[in-house]
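Pair request: fold both.
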Amino acid sequence: MASPMGSSSTAGGATDGTDDEGQDRPQNSRRAFNACAHPSDSMRRQLGTELGLEPRQVKFWFQNRRTQAKAQADRSNNCALRRENERMMAENLMFRESLKSVVCITCGGPTIRDDDCHIRLEQFKLENDFLVQEASTSNQLDSLTYLTKGENSSAVDFT
């Protein structure tokens, strides 16, 4: 049975007598595939006649060729994705390493991590609330002291 990729051989090693056509088959088949990956029935019959193949053989050859092309595209895409993943992992590692040695631009000291930042912020809020409450209490005491001194001064006899 002949295939589009070359002429068939018999058990003795002799070809079917179409050496020149057999060498052109793969090229003609590839050219036809590049022109149209999904040929119609009439195109398959025409190709079969030109290549000396049955339409079913042409149909299966195109089917196999599409599968191979898709597999090649998938492999190529997979390789590109792997390279991108490796690049991103290296970049991520570089960023992680650079974060370990970050210094404050104002004082040159070490910076605080996000976890520590949130804890410190909560501590500052609590301290602020305490100081506001203390200031309010202090102002009330000052007002009370002023009022008491004012009452005592009016009660003083200057005679």
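--- second member of the pair ---
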Amino acid sequence: KLNNNELESIPKGVKNLSKLNELDLTKNCFECSEATSLDQNINLKNNELLSIPEGINGLSNMDQLTLKNNELETIPNGIKELTNLNQLSVTDNKLKEVPTEIANLKELSLRDLSNNCFACETATSMDGKM
């Protein structure tokens, strides 16, 4: 756990921890995450993130991604590359729409999209897919 440390970046040594399978970076000061070199379980809640780093899309082994309580307005279409993603939480952000590719993630069993700014059209278009 590296939570509540006002970190602005991930310590360089963390990337060399080959057996690391979970990283909690809750309540730090990331403008954008360097978590793109990690995989498995990444917790980036309460970091005031404005966007999801595109590099996260290449982490095909990622199992859990928590982005609760940030400032996210979009989820990149590249999320479809997270083929082993089991849990995705983007609650309490500023999302207005969700890429339909999320519905195609076969391993995804938990999707928490609550407390965002979705329009009725978005909710209707995802009906039956989530």
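Observation on the second member. The longest helix spans residues 120-126.
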